[in-house]
Amino acid sequence: NRLHATDVTSSSFRLVWPQLLSQETGYYTLEYAPRADVARKRTQQMSGGHTSLVLSGLAPETTYEVALIPESNVHYFPPQTTRVTTLAEEISPVQVLISESGPRSFHVSWAPLLDSVLSYQVLYGPLPGNSVKVLQVDGRHNSTVVEHLAPNTTYLVTVTAIYRSGKEKSLSAKACTQEGEWAA
């Protein structure tokens, strides 16, 4: 029944606390900082009606010190504190799915979709062979259509997640185009 975190990921968590104030009786000041670098403290204010807040844009595998200070004009409430450690950066993508395969195109999708990913690169080329093409996909999307392919051909498709931190992680899958339609 006090300040605690839920929905913890590598870059965010939700803070939940009991209703101490109301819209009329005050507001909350929230202070949070990485435990190892308290000088990087951030402060946020919310009206007294709030009982939860999502903090995002956090560093992975980092312990944050969080203090919720109820600023009441009626009663004194002591600050509530908690300590939350974000998860390690998830390995992305963990699955690549090929679907809607036709003679000249197929659909590529991947999961999970993460806040910590800036963009995805989709590399594809026929097997065997070394002609590789690249598609850039915005980090908010988790699928794309690959077009202008040769019919009845096996392609190697590699999806690379490019993290905001500069790290990259890749996963590959094979895709086959369908046989071409016969000309009438």
From TrEMBL:
<protein>
    <submittedName>
        <fullName>VWA1 protein</fullName>
    </submittedName>
</protein>
<keyword id="KW-0325">Glycoprotein</keyword>
<dbReference type="InterPro" id="IPR036116">
    <property type="entry name" value="FN3_sf"/>
</dbReference>
<feature type="domain" description="Fibronectin type-III">
    <location>
        <begin position="1"/>
        <end position="90"/>
    </location>
</feature>
<dbReference type="Pfam" id="PF00041">
    <property type="entry name" value="fn3"/>
</dbReference>
<dbReference type="GO" id="GO:0005576">
    <property type="term" value="C:extracellular region"/>
</dbReference>
<dbReference type="InterPro" id="IPR050991">
    <property type="entry name" value="ECM_Regulatory_Proteins"/>
</dbReference>
<keyword id="KW-0964">Secreted</keyword>
<keyword id="KW-0732">Signal</keyword>
<feature type="domain" description="Fibronectin type-III">
    <location>
        <begin position="92"/>
        <end position="180"/>
    </location>
</feature>
<dbReference type="InterPro" id="IPR003961">
    <property type="entry name" value="FN3_dom"/>
</dbReference>
<keyword id="KW-0677">Repeat</keyword>
<dbReference type="InterPro" id="IPR013783">
    <property type="entry name" value="Ig-like_fold"/>
</dbReference>
